[in-house]
Amino acid sequence: MSKMTCDIYQDLIALYVDGLCSEDSGKAVEEHIKSCKKCADAYRQMKNEIKVSEISGEEREENSEFKLNLSKTWKRFKRNVFLKVMAAVLALGIIFTSVYCLFIKSYLLPWDKVRFENICMLSDGSVAFEVIPDSGKKGDVKVIDIGGTFYVTCFSPLINFTDYVSEPSDYIRIKPETDPYETGAAEPVHDCEAIYYGDIYGQHDLIWEKGTQLPKASEELEEEFEFLIEN
Ligand SMILES: [Zn+2]
Question: Beta-strand (E) ranges in 77-210?
Answer without folding.
Answer: 106-108, 114-121, 127-133, 140-146, 149-157, 172-174, 194-198, 204-209
